[in-house]
Specification:
The chain has a single domain, classed as Cytidine Deaminase, domain 2. It contains four helices and five strands; from the N terminus they run H-E-E-H-E-H-E-E-H. The two termini are about 20 Å apart. The model has no long low-confidence stretch (mean pLDDT about 95). The structure holds tetrahydrodeoxyuridine (THU).
């Protein structure tokens, strides 16, 4: 387990599902929750927030990232993502994969189902061959 315990993982999964309650998704009616574990053990949560101007909606994963970065955190260990889909795990959209990759390729994305089962992949596994900070001669945040 890379840098966090099984108990922390279970807590992230639980919190991601609890965060679905906060989703503002009157258009899709597809609530998504996320729980993001920082390097120092802090957890930031997020939900999707939609808009009448549809394309302005933001996903749960990016809500959590923006909350964490704006509070001074740039190193992450894992993010759990939750939806109500019972037959398959939720997976991050392409835009969110890119935003997660901005903060490193070797941290975990925990893709869950409502029964608390999950699949885990690294950010790099979810977005191989990505355009990232190194293309701009910048160091990664982690
Ligand atoms: N959504 C997320 O918040 N995260 C995902 O991983 C997939 C999709 C949101 C975007 C939109 O508000 C709704 O789910 C339906 O696409």
């Amino acid at each position: 387990m890379p840098g966090y315990s099984y108990e922390q993982l279970q807590q992230l999964v639980k919190m991601s599902h609890e965060m679905k309650k906060m989703a503002y998704c009157p258009y899709s009616r597809f609530p998504v929750g996320a729980a993001l574990l920082t390097a120092d053990g802090t957890v930031f949560t997020g939900c999707n927030v939609e808009n009448a101007s549809y394309s302005l909606g933001i996903c749960a994963e990016r809500t959590a990232i923006v909350k964490a970065v704006s509070a001074g955190h740039q190193k992450f260990k894992a993010i759990a993502v939750a939806s109500d889909l019972k037959e398959r795990t939720i997976v991050p959209c392409g835009a969110c994969r890119q935003v997660l990759m901005e903060f490193g390729g070797d941290w975990d994305v925990i893709m869950t189902k409502p029964d608390m089962t999950y699949e885990k992949m690294t950010t790099k596994e979810l977005l191989p061959l990505c355009f990232g900070p190194t293309y701009l001669q910048r160091e990664r945040a982690v």
